[in-house]
Amino acid sequence: MSKTIMIVDDSASLRQVVHIALAGAGYEVVEACDGKDGLDKLDGRKIHLIISDVNMPNMDGITFVKAVKQLPNYKFTPIIMLTTEAQEDRKREGQMAGAKAWVVKPFQPEQMLNAVARLVLP
Amino acid sequence: MNLEKAKQTFIDEANELLLAFEDDLLRIESAPDPERPEIINSLFRAAHTIKGSAGLFGFDYIVSFTHVLESVLDKVREGGLTLDAELISLLLNCRDYVGNLIDALESGIEIDPARDADRELLLVRLQVQLKQGIGDPATVAGTPVVATTVVSVASPEPQEATATREADTVASDHWHLSLRFGPDVLRNGMDPLSFIRYLGTLGRIVYLTTLYDGLPPASQMDPESCYLGFEIEFDSAVDKQTIENVFEFVRDDSTVRIIPPHSKLAEYISLIGSLPEDQRRLGEILLQGGALTYFELEEVLRIQRAEQQVDKHAARPLGAILVEENVVPPQAVLAALEKQKQSDERKSNEHRFIKVEAAKLDSLINLVGELVIAGAAANLLATRSHSPELIEATTSIAELVERIRDGALTMRMVHIAETFNRFPRVVRDVSRELGKQIELSIGGGETELDKSMVEKLGDPLMHIVRNAIDHGIEPEAERLKMGKPVEGKLSLTAFHESGSIVIEVSDDGGGINRARVLAKALQKGLVPPDLVLSDREILNLIFEPGFSTAEQVTNLSGRGVGMDVVKRSIEQLRGEIELESEEGLGTLVRIRLPLTLAIIDGFQVVIGRSTFVIPLDLVIECLDLQTDSELLQPRYLNLRGEVLPYVRLRDLFDIEAPPPARENVVVVQYGNARAGLVVDQLLGEFQAVIKPLGQLFRGIKGIGGSTILGTGEVALILDVPQLIQLASAGERAELTRHLPRHLSVARS
C-alpha cells in the first residue's frame, strides 16, 4: 500500500508540481490550500507525511504545525516545512513547533523527493 | 618568598629536566634492555614534574601539552607502546617544543597556543601514538585521552567489540556510521528506520548492529522516546557530505559519526596534498579535502569555544578535538597539518635570503652591462630600418633589459647597517681607552648601497670616527668648563639625496680651529705665506697629504693614515668628502657617494661631433642658452632670477667645430651646488655602462669615465661634481692654472 502525503500550500501551481512529482515516485497525495483546509482534511485518514508552507492565508504554517501536534492521530506524523533562505527565524520557529524537517524554496522536484524519501519511502 | 623568584626556579628546574630528558632519549636506543625501564621511568617523571610545577604557576598551555606527553610516556611505561626510533624523534621534538615554551616564559613572550601550528602537529602526533597501542585495541574506543566532558562517542557496547569493528572499518573498505538518535526523534515524526532505508538508496548497508543498551527496563520505558543507536557498515561511492545530508533533519539532536573507508582516507590525504598553498585554517583544509563536513566543523568549533570559555589556555586545538572525537581520522588531520605547515614555511621562506657568491653577481652585472650595450645597438638599427614592428620589438626588449639591470643592481645593494653595526663596539673601545664618555647614535641603517662600496667604506669611516673621538670630542674636564654635558655625542647617519648616498659623521666636540690649521699648513709649507684662503679652503687643508693637526700623536688616529688617505679612498669610489665645522660646537664630515658603480641612467649631449653623457640623476632641467639679456656675465646666467654659474664645455674640452646657432644649457645639481653646462645638442636618456678610464686619463678634470654607445662609438661620462666646482667662482684660480687658454676665451 502506498504512503499518503499531504501538501499544504496556497499556491495551486506549487501543489500541482509537488503532486505530480510525488505521485510519480509512487506516493498518494492529498492537497490542502491553507492550514485550516489542512486541518479539515486530517479527518482520520492515514497520512504518512505532511509538507506545509509557512506563509498562508487563513491559517499560517506555524499555527498549523502546532495544531497538528495536538491531534492524537497525527502528532507523530513527520512534517516538512517549506522555508526560504532568508527565513532562518521562521525555520527555527517551525522546528520549535514540531516541524523538524525542511526544504528551502525555491526547490527542484528532485530535492523535494530526496527530503521526503529520507522520512518516508513510498 | 617571591613569586618571580619561584618562577625562575621553575624555569631552571624545567631546563634541567629537559636536558636530562634529551639525554635519556639519546641514551635509550643503545641502552641494554634491563636499563630501559628505569630510563623510561625517568622520562615519565620529567614530563610529570614539569606538568606539576607548571600547574602551580598556572601555565596551562604547558600543562595541557605535557599532560599528553606524559600520557604517551605512561603508555610506554605500561608496555602499551614501544619506544622505537620514530617515537623517540617525536619525543625529541616535543622536548624542543617544551623548551621553546620555557624560553618564551623566561623572556616574557606571550604565547597563544591556539595559533601554534607546531603545537597542534605535535599534539596530533602524540594522539596518534596514544590511539595506536600495540596489541591493545581496547584503547581505541571510549577513554578520551584528555579528560574532557564533551560529547563522547564512547560506545555503550562492550569496548572490545566496538574496538574490533572500528579497527576493521579502517581496514575494510567501507564507511562506518555511528548513529545515536536523540530521544525525541520519534516525537518529531522522524523514524530512524526511514533514514536507514533511505541510506540504503545511496549504497549498500553491509552490516548493521542495533545498540539497545540505552533501553531502560520495560516499566520505565517511554514508548514515544527513542533509545536506539546503530553501527552501520556502509559500502558506497558517495562523499561524506552526501552521507551526512541523509541525517540532516536529525543532525541537531542526534550524534552522527561518519568514519571514511580506507580508500577514502588515501583520497583525502592526496586531495589535501594537492590543495593550493595559501595560508588556511586547519578546518578549511580538511573541508576542502572532503574529510570534514560543514556541520562537523561547526560542531567541533562549538566544542572548542566552550572549552575556551572554561579555560583559554587549556582548550584543545582543533586537530586534537577532531581526532579525539573521532570526527576525522588522525591520518587526515596529520596530512592537513603538514599542509598547513608547508604553507606557513613557504610563506616565511619568501622573506629568507640566499647567499650568492659575489663573483657570480659581478659577472651577472657585467653581462647585463653588455646586454645594455648590445640592446642599444639593436635599438639603433631598428630605428634606422624604419620598420615599426622591429622598433616596437626592440623597445619592449629595451624595457625588459632596463628592468633586469635594475634588478641585478639591487641584488648588489646591501644595507649600510652592515658597516654601521661595527661602530658601537669601536666607539666603546676607543672611548674607554681615551677615558671619554661617548654616546653613539646611528641613523638610516636601512639605506642601501652597493656591496663593493660598503666594503671599501669601512676603513675610511673607521678613521673618521676615530678622529672624531680622539681630536673632536674634548676631554671631560674641558667639556664641563664649556658647559657641555660630560657625555660626548657622536652620530652616524646615512640617507639618499638626489642620485647619491650621503653619510654624515658628526660630533659635538671642539670643532676645527682654523688658525691652528692654517699655522700648521704654513709650517709644513702646504700654502704660500701670503695667500688669502676662504674658510672652506682652510678646512679642506686637512685633506692635504702630509697634514696632521694633533699636537700629540696618539696611538689611535696618528697612524700615519691622514685624512688625505680617507679622501683618496672616497674619491676612488667616485665620491666626495667635505667638512663643516663650527668652533666649539662640533664637526660634521659628509661623504657623498654615487648610487651605483656599474651602470647609470645617462643623459646624452653632443658638442661638435663628440657625444658626452651626464648622469641623469644629477640633471635638473634643460634650457636654451639666451645670448642677450640673461647672460649676466660671461660666466653666469640668469635662471629665473637666480644666478647660475655655467661652463661652456666646447671651450673646456677645446672642441674646435664651430658652435651652432642655438646652444643648450643642462642644469645639473650635486649636493647643494648647481651649475649650467653649455652644450650644442640634447639627445636624451640613455643607459650607460660605466667603463673606467685608462690610467693615462685618470687625471683629466671633468671626465669621470667612458661608455660605449649603440653605434659602437665611445662617449665620455662627465664628472658633474668637478664641473660644478669648475663653474663656481671658488675654483677660478685652479681653473686658470689648469686651463688658462679656454678660460680666457670664456672670459672674453
UniProtKB/TrEMBL annotation, chain A:
Signal peptide: none annotated. Gene3D superfamilies: 3.40.50.2300. PROSITE patterns: RESPONSE_REGULATORY. It holds the Pfam family Response_reg. Keywords: Phosphoprotein. It comes from the Bacteria. SUPFAM superfamilies: CheY-like. The modification 4-aspartylphosphate is found at residue 53. Residues 4-120 form the Response regulatory domain. CDD domains: REC_CheY4-like (cd17562). SMART domains: REC. PANTHER family: CHEMOTAXIS TWO-COMPONENT RESPONSE REGULATOR, STRESS RESPONSE REGULATOR PROTEIN 1. This is Response regulator. It comes from Parachitinimonas caeni.
From TrEMBL, chain B:
One of its GO terms (molecular function) is protein histidine kinase activity. Residues 599-729 form the CheW-like domain. InterPro entries: Bact_Chemotaxis_CheA, CheA-like_dim, CheA-like_homodim_sf, CheW-like_dom_sf, CheW-lke_dom, HATPase_C_sf, HATPase_dom, His_kinase_dom. The keyword Nucleotide-binding applies. It is an enzyme of class 2 (transferase). Pfam families: CheW, H-kinase_dim, HATPase_c, Hpt. Involved in the transmission of sensory signals from the chemoreceptors to the flagellar motors. CheA is autophosphorylated; it can transfer its phosphate group to either CheB or CheY. This is Chemotaxis protein CheA. It comes from Parachitinimonas caeni.
